Amino acid sequence: MALAVSVRFDFQDDKGKSSFTKIRVPTGFSIAQYTEFAQGAAQLLLNASTASITKISVVFNVSLASLGLKTVASSVSKVARKMFLQFTTAVTGFLAKTFIPALSESKVASGSDDVDQADTDVAALISAYEDGIVVTGGTMTFTNGRGHDITAATAAKEQFRRRSPS
Amino acid sequence: MAEPIEVVATYQDQANKKSTNTSYIADGLTIAQIEEGLQGFAQLIDDVTNALINGIDFSISIDGSGLTGNVAGGTSDVEEVAEFISRTAAGREVRMNIPATNDTASVAGSDDLDQTDTDVAAIVSLLEDGLSVTGGTIIPSDVDENDIIEVVTARERVRNSGSAG
Known about the structure:
Chain A has helices at residues 31-47, 120-131, and strands at residues 5-12, 18-25, 52-62, 81-89, 95-100, 133-135, 138-140, 142-143, 150-160. Chain A is α+β, with helices and mostly antiparallel strands. Classes of the chains: A alpha+beta, B alpha+beta.
């Protein structure tokens, strides 16, 4: 069974304190329809609140069933061991960064903390970030947080981080 | 420029520690196309991580610039919440809290919200009947997509400072 879509509303009061609420709604509608619902519901929530609304978002859960992904974590897996990837974007000076937890040691070049970009799996992932992933009728392209298209990888390193910085 | 769509993948290692990875994708695709693309992405990251991928969510930011009266009032406190407890067609309870409830929305001498108040009644209607959108009606539900059929309780509550949600 699919999980419901979450519509999240972030609030801020006069003292700068923040909070949020969620409304779950069924799947099966379009982005335009969810947008219409979220904007309408936001106005009703705002009318019933004395705070302001600072952000509205609609969150979808992707079904991972039937993809054949691992079902057991490796006995040596550590989420703190991350693959750090850095990319240039279509706008000069604006980079994109991401940290993928629990990097497999087999993807790290011997005697180095460089991720082995000649490895087939690593190359495929970097290619996806650079060129996108082809989907039915289009291509899903990756960007940085400002929406600038990712163009080329400039760094791929093993890094240890206790928390997710991205 | 529209904000990019945020993609968050959650991982879990052998010690049951969890971590996330955030990526961004361009807008302009349908939900089905994004799901197809992210299922492909899941397989790519599964090949380089030795943790479990617990889930992948994507979040679309909605333009709120058209909201009217979107200014915090001088006495607003997000800890004062309007709590709505509803029941779905499957009999499941669904709670929804609106932060910084209006002090005038409750019945005198009680913490019950005044359901004859226009703004409170609009929330009850939103939860029970949903909102009409172009080509349909979206009715709030529980996590398993069972529609809310009835608001059972609507009252003012107080949250501890620093608590989320």
